[in-house]
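the two lines:
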Amino acid sequence: MKTARHKRFGLAMAACALSLGLVCGQAGAAESDTIKVGIITEMSGPFADFGRHIVNGAKAYMQQHGDTVAGKKVVLVIKDTTGPAPDVAKRLAQELIVKDKVDFLAGFGLTPNALAVAPIATEAKMPTIIMNAATSIITSKSPYFARVSLTLPQVTEPMAVWAYKNGYRQVYTLVADYGPGHDAEAAFKKVFTKMGGQVVGEARVPLKNPEFGPYIQRIKDSKPQAMFVFVTPGEMPIALIKSYRERGLAKAGIKLLSTGDVMEDGDQDALGDNALGMISTHQYSAAHKSPENAAFLAAYAKIDPLRPNFMSVGGYDGMAAIYNVIKQLNGKIDGDKAMAVLKGMKINSPRGPIQIDAATRDIVQNVYVREVKKVGGHYYNVEFETFKALRDPGK
Amino acid sequence: MSEKLSRASNHLTFLRTLERWKPAEIVFWVALVAVQFVFPTSLVFASQILITGLFALSLDMLLGYAGIVTLGHAAFFGIGAYTAGLLAAHGWQDPLLGLVVAGAAAGIAGYLSSFLLSRGGDLTRLMITLGIGLLLFEVANSAASITGGVDGLQGVAVGKLLGLFAFDLYGKTAYAYVLVVSFLLFAFVRSMMHSPYGLALRSMRENQVRALAVGIPINAVLTNIYTLAAVIAGIAGALLTQTTQFVGIDVLSFQRSADLLVMLIIGGTATLYGGFVGAAAFMMVQDRLSNLNPQYWQFFLGVLLIVMTLYLRGGLLGGLGRLAALCKRRRDKERS
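prediction for all of em together
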């Protein structure tokens, strides 16, 4: 009898605690002299690096340009999706709109998180800036989406073009076995075979704990002139390139070509000599020479001691776009008007000139061919050829 | 003779009291109804808590009552979520139809896999459930043309509930819908656990050999409960799909199974309410902490979990129960 009673009391307490928790959840009303930017991104878990770069990029922009625009104070409200968790991302978006009353949504390192938010952005007419997620279809899912990062086909196709023009005819592809990997494989193959090249083999490696040895050996045995690689930034490229060196593919004359995700800036010093001479195509390198990039690097160094990468630039340019909109609308944010300003907007980015396409709201930018070199004791992707003002070929 | 009779009636009253709805239980559900009106801006979060609570309830049936350990319960949640999502994406947009079909699909999967579980002990079961979970995740990843792979299933459009109520941005319809479904399923599970069948489950958990000797058909009961738990998990998955109108591959992830286990243990196993309380506590703490520090909140969550499992025997409900006992003893002492 006694235990039943305790349980009863416990239940009542639990009910109270639940209500209390929700009470605390009620945020204060929005103040009219601030502009709130809700950033939904991956701050913890295996993709925490994405979130860190995006948020620090955004903060670097605010550090450099001040936090007041058109008389309004800009405030970031940062929310953690914990990884690829579309239901969480969607809820966070809903709460940011309904409770925090944000004026913009931004962030999104991973495609599923961005896609899940599309219907909410449309319903709430919420201008939403995609700062990283790179699957082609994203911007077509909501008229309130605009992208300042990249699309995977956009940076993959130049690699195929460059490879063919430089005499490579037989290429083996190796990609991570998930959506973006399949996209990169398809984009490379389409352009390369169209020009007259031949894809002699295709390998897909699992995302988690891959052992590259057997794949690399198989590639070596089939003796292509080069291999094209796309894997997720982080630990995969390091394991891959080690394996590439160990099995002596470089000595066998098999060149490693990749998208810039693989040769990401943050990994360069960890890769060291192993990556020297590798060719990749991407939209940003920390070694890009321009006054905008120098200013960006200086501002970023005050926020984060580590080297920024293309995701940081995505966060930085996303904030630039938001600042532009606030300026143009003089601090009165309206979804449709904001989108009108975003369409066709040009920004002088640290990566070079970029534009948000007026029709697709997707990014138009230069894609550079780079080679890993040692510059002043550190390793950088040094750009040596430019494909100017590329659109997303996926549309 | 009369003594025997009175003892029998004593046992009967004991069972009857257990079966009766207690005031605290009524308060619990009334409070959940009140949430709809008191917190109109938190309804999406509240409905996700309820869905997770329902999912945890289905695990409680297995772990708490039947003593079956599993690390792959998300498999059924995921099957339900994808079934409801695929139905909605291909034109069958009635939410209730989706719920029924999703529950049935998960139930069939549960029924089939229960035969694997009837062999071997705890460790075997852990491995088998883990294996099934990982297998399904990889299937969903590879069949990208059907499931959308890691990008998630696109184009899930759910129709109006009963043809009347559309799912809105504030989540009003969603919350009411989830609450009603959860309550009905809960009431069903509750009455089941208080029936002789529930007692049979518990005796099976405590001592399999004795249960067999008393005449409880262990394998049949195991198949039953596993199938039922799968149905409820599937319905929870379908609810998540319908209220978020999206299916991500993480519905099948190992992380989801593991988190669920943690929530249930926080709340307290074999209490029926443990799942709901644990889910609410876990998700609210996670939400608060990640708002305070989006980068390092998992550290504090970890500390909290360790402290709770070490010092709060029986989970939150058990801890609160002991607190109540302590207060009562104090009061009694003062009175005397």
